[in-house]
Every structure is written in C-alpha cells, then in structure tokens.
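Quick one, tokens below. Sequence please?
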C-alpha cells in the first residue's frame, strides 16, 4: 500500500525518546499544517486505557509502550497516534490500514496451527523507526514525506467476520506495532476469541508489563522481534534492548505462546558473538521458545546493503542448538536452506512439521507429540496435530 499525504511531521517524531521524556509534537499543529493522515487518524479514536495520570496536573503518561511518553495537553506521543485531549487519552480505534488473509506462517509463527489461514491486520504508526522496515509505508506513514495512508473503517465484529468467512483459524495484529493500538487490538481479539480464533500480537517487543497484562486475557501469541543486543543498535531504531528482553520474559510468565524473530542485517547485527548472546538470552527465559533467524533483503533506507549469507545463518543456528535451544529456524532463504524450515523432535530429531520456507507441507504430530518417540513438542498446534 502506497501512502501519501502532505507534509510529514517534523524532526521530533524521529527523535528517540528517553524513558519518561516529553514528546514535542502538538497534534493540532500537525492538523493545521495540512497533515491529512494525522487528521484522518485523529477522528478515528476512542478513550484509551493504558495510561496513568501525572507526573503533573493535566499531564498523562502513556503505558502502552516502553517509551512511556508524558503527554501534555493536546500533544501526541512519539508514535504520533496516541494523544491527550480534554484530559483523556485518545487512542486509535475502528479502522485498519491493511489486512490480508495468508498462511499463519507468513507471520513467522511456526508452532501455532501450522498450515492454517490467518487474517493479519495492521494500523498506522510505530514506536520505533527501523531503517529496514518491511512495512514502512504504514508503520512510518506519519514520518515519511509524501505518505498518504487511507484508513479503512471497520468494526471489530466485521473484521473478525471477514476472517471467519475466509476460513481463518488465526487473527493477528502486525505490520506496525500492535501495542500502540492495544485498545483496538483488544476489542478485535475479544471478538475473535468469541468466534473461536487464535489471536496473535506481532510485536517489536518495546512494550510494558501493563500492556502485556492488559492484552493477555484475549491474546494467545506474542511473536516478538529481537533486533539486536546493544544500546547502539537499538538507539538506531529508536528504542532500547532492555524492555524487549524483559517483555519476552514477562510474556512467557503470563502464559503467552512466544516466538522470537531476529532479522540478521549485514553490517548492523551480524556479529557472531552478539547473536550468540541473543540466543542465550532467549534460552535463559525458556529453551522451548522458537528462534527464527531471518535473512535480510535490501529495502527502505537500507537498499545498499547485501543480503544475508545463508551459510552464516546456518552457523548461528548450529551454535544455538549446541547451546540448548530446541527450535531454531532459518527463513527467507528457502532455496538454499530447506532443512532449517522444519520442526524436529528435540529428542529423536524426526521431522514433525515439514515446511518449505513459510509453507507447511505436512503435520506429523500426534496429540502434539512426536509420532516416533512420543516427546511432546510445545505449541498451539490445534486439531490438525491432534
Ligand atoms: S504508545 Fe505512543 S504515546 Fe504511548 S508510550 Fe509508546 S510512543 Fe508514547
């Protein structure tokens, strides 16, 4: 989806916020400056829940993501879509930026209903600003000059009806950061659960315990990107690594099914030591958490970089397995690395789910366990693996 629409917000939205810092963007200024998308989104809001009062009278602190922006009267946070108005927090509601029906694996989720269809929707805006974002036309629509997103008005019930009519078993919020629109995601997921769907947050992980707890009653899956290991790397993206690591642990503690993705970008986060450290952090939380090592392809502001060497990803996966992780996948290079798309039994190494890249070809699990040795393989497998 191409986006367009007038002048972009100025520099403040692109500045990473220190925790607790006050954002600099006045929503009314953006509207006055002829910012059609911002104006359109400002009309599609509802009162928010994820915030607290303070730290001064008339101020709000948003708790949806780890920036924890302090919003003074009339101002939006770093994501550009949550803002204070007349003493309350207004948050996005009642629209989507895009939605597609595809296999659940295209969300890089491998242990949930393999081979099922997922309706995946996204909104506008993001708390981070990754220069290699695949979905930048929606996630960065409020920051990019010439962006023009067109929100698609829809109710939660109608969106879920689309999913049900298409035969989906899963409904996912992705493409931008779902926690910045958590109240809308919760409304949609509540309806999805009522209709029997599995629900998934596809998140950058820069979130808070409050937001994870708020979503947990209606959300089954937390698929999180772990994009680097250093403060410098995360500063480039506009965030910090600590909240992401904390969110992985907290999500697991709350009972989400968690899968982690690391897009390995040459020259950015492709140091073997750093990737080993990421694998160790995930395994420390739970070695059953699947880790997806995805190959990078040039895009957005990183078009001049090379693609990731598949052999390097295989080496990283091998080290992760050797250090105790049980499910490590290499994706985006299906023609070169087929074997690391399958799920194997961690005890006897038989293939229990056979895939080609993001397509499930065969589910061999029996009652969620290896048919050869009976070892349980964790996941939300559903009827196809019963
Ligand atoms: S969701 Fe938006 S307003 Fe809330 S803390 Fe994050 S960037 Fe700030």
């Amino acid at each position: 989806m191409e986006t367009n629409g007038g002048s972009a917000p100025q520099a403040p939205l692109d500045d990473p916020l220190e925790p607790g810092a006050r954002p600099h963007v006045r929503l009314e200024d953006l509207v006055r400056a002829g910012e059609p998308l911002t104006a359109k989104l400002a009309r599609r809001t509802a009162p928010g829940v994820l915030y607290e009062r303070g730290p001064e009278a008339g101020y709000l602190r948003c708790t949806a993501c780890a920036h924890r922006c302090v919003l003074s009267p009339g101002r939006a946070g770093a994501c550009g879509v949550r803002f204070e108005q007349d003493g309350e927090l207004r948050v996005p509601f009642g629209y989507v930026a895009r939605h597609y029906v595809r296999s659940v694996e295209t969300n890089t989720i491998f242990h949930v209903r393999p081979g099922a269809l997922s309706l995946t929707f996204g909104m506008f805006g993001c708390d981070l600003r990754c220069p290699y974002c695949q979905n930048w036309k929606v996630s960065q629509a409020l920051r990019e000059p010439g962006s023009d997103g067109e929100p698609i008005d829809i109710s939660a019930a109608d969106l879920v009806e689309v999913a049900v009519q298409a035969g989906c078993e899963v409904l996912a919020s992705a493409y931008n950061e779902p926690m910045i629109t958590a109240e809308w995601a919760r409304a949609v997921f509540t309806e999805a659960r009522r209709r029997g769907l599995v629900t998934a947050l596809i998140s950058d992980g820069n979130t808070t315990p409050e937001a994870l707890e708020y979503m947990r009653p209606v959300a089954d899956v937390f698929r999180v990107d772990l994009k680097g290991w250093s403060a410098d790397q995360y500063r480039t993206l506009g965030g910090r690594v600590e909240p992401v690591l904390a969110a992985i642990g907290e999500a697991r503690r709350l009972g989400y099914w968690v899968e982690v993705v690391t897009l390995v970008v040459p020259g950015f986060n492709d140091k073997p030591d750093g990737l080993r450290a990421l694998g160790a952090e995930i395994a420390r939380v739970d070695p059953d958490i699947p880790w997806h090592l995805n190959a990078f392809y040039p895009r957005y502001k990183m078009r001049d970089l090379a693609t990731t060497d598949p052999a390097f990803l295989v080496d990283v996966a091998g080290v992760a397995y050797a250090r105790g992780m049980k499910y490590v996948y290499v994706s985006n290079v299906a023609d070169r690395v087929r074997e690391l798309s399958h799920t194997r039994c961690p005890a006897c190494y038989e293939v229990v789910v056979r895939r080609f890249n993001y397509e499930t070809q065969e589910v061999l699990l029996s009652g969620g366990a290896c048919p050869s040795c009976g070892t349980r393989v964790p996941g939300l497998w559903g009827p196809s693996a019963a």
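Residues 95-385 form a domain with the TIM Barrel fold (CATH 3.20.20.70). The longest strand covers residues 257-264.
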